[in-house]
Design goal:
Blueprint (H helix, E strand, L loop, with lengths): L2 H29 L5 H28 L25 E2 L2 E2 H23 L5 H24 L3 H5 L7 H19 L15 H20 L7 H29 L4 H15 L8 H25 L8 H19 L15 H32 L7 H6 L1 H6 L7
Antiparallel strand pairs: 1-2
Helix pairs in contact: 1-2, 1-3, 1-7, 2-3, 2-4, 3-4, 3-6, 4-6, 4-12, 6-11, 6-12, 7-8, 7-9, 8-9, 8-10, 9-10, 9-11, 10-11, 11-12
């Protein structure tokens, strides 16, 4: 065990949890209408609780232990409940418990991101069942494939901090949910602007800070790779925001607060797969690409296709995750100033592996998510009644409101 590494990963765990609680809760809470703010807040907190318990009881073990004959696809239950883990057990240079906690915070935020796709119309019981089952059937297997020594890891797929595991997974699930569950009442004819941009800004700021632990902590050591990952992450966030603001100015003649903040998140999501593999200049280029491509993806999905992904999870996180994962191949190469993890003379082969990783995760996630939605619709139900949706989920589902008439 290395004390410095352990201290950094423990601190990173707190930073990543900060992204969900309260970062994402505030970010999403500000984006919805005032009658639904408490519903997305409690959904984020409840998901954190449910996922953490499941992670301890067996999800971690399935994701990160040797699965024997099934190792290419899933781990085993040998560390379920951490019964075989002691304070002196180590994973690399940190205690196993530290690694478990760090990875738990990733498992928490991924299904919480999907909340933005069905916000303002999903039943609370559905959110709990869907998040728990999705964690076990989608997040855990894909995590094992990429980070647990599974078949994609064996092929050499590169995902430093979750471009595939977190953002592609969450983005695909969000798109499937939005299509299956359907639009909110009145969309797109009725304007549904965010009720509190200051809340959105506060949440975005917490996400930005927390992302330093998300990407920097993924080095799993207090070293130069962590420092470069944090630097590339910050530059990408700035570049993503600037790119989004530029395209807003070109199209609308003004820059919105919401657009600039969304661009930050787009830049952060896009750099995630590449953060520890690329130079800060690579982070700049990837951030510009993320802010630009996600801007047009959002316009296309919402305005052209009229898909009601309420809080733009699929065009920002999903598209950003795909773009960042693919851009690992060139920007991680020595020839492009990267850390040399991608063969300098074989960028195209690495790109093919990255494409395969994205497709494999997207197909598995899409099929399983659709199956879960079908089963849950037939059992616990998904949508609230029309009158409850009109009233707002804060009162209809939780008997509370965040404002006084």
């Amino acid at each position: 065990m290395n004390a410095a590494d352990n201290s950094w990963i423990l601190a990173s765990s707190a930073l990543v949890l900060l992204m969900t609680l309260p970062g994402l809760a505030l970010f999403y809470g500000g984006l919805v209408r005032s009658k639904n703010v408490l519903s997305v807040v409690i959904q984020c907190f409840a998901i954190a609780a449910v996922v953490s318990i499941l992670w301890l009881l067996g999800a971690y073990s399935l994701a990160f232990t040797d699965g024997g004959a099934l190792q290419p696809f899933i781990g085993s239950l040998e560390e379920a409940g951490l019964l075989n883990v002691t304070p002196t057990s180590v994973k690399g240079s940190v205690p196993t418990a530290t690694f478990v906690m760090f990875q738990m915070t990733f498992a928490v935020i991924t299904p919480a991101l999907i909340v933005g796709a069905y916000a303002e119309r999903a039943r609370f019981t559905f959110v709990l069942w869907f998040s728990a089952l999705w964690l076990l059937l989608v997040y855990v297997p894909v995590t094992h494939w990429v980070w647990g020594g599974g078949w994609l890891a064996a092929l050499g797929v590169m995902d430093f901090a979750g471009g595939i595991v977190v953002h592609v997974n969450a983005g695909v699930a969000a798109l499937v949910c939005a299509l299956f569950i359907g639009r909110r009442r009145g969309f797109p004819q009725v304007p549904m602007p965010p009720h509190s941009l200051p809340l959105v800004a506060t949440g975005a700021g917490l996400l930005w800070i927390g992302w330093f632990g998300f990407n920097g902590g993924s080095a799993l050591a207090a070293n130069g790779t962590a420092a470069f990952a944090i630097l590339a992450t910050h530059i990408a966030a700035c570049a993503g925001s600037a790119a989004w603001a530029f395209w807003e100015w070109v199209r609308y003649g003004k820059v919105s607060v919401l657009g600039a903040l969304t661009g930050v998140v787009a830049g952060l999501g896009t750099i995630t797969a590449a953060a520890g593999f690329v130079s800060p200049l690579g982070g700049l280029a990837i951030g510009v690409a993320g802010g630009s491509i996600c801007f047009f993806a959002t316009q296309w999905i919402k305005a052209i296709l009229k898909i009601d992904d309420s809080l733009d999870v699929s065009p920002v996180h999903g598209v950003g995750g795909v773009v960042g994962t693919l851009l690992v191949a060139p920007f991680a190469s020595i020839a492009w100033g990267g850390a040399g993890y991608s063969l300098q003379s074989d960028v195209w082969s690495q790109l093919a592996i990255q494409v395969l990783g994205v497709l494999a995760a997207a197909v598995w996630c899409g099929i399983v998510t659709l199956t879960l939605l079908y089963v849950l619709q037939k059992t616990v139900g998904i949508r609230v009644a029309e009158e409850q949706e009109s009233e707002g989920l804060d009162l209809a589902e939780h008997g509370e409101r965040s404002y006084i008439n």
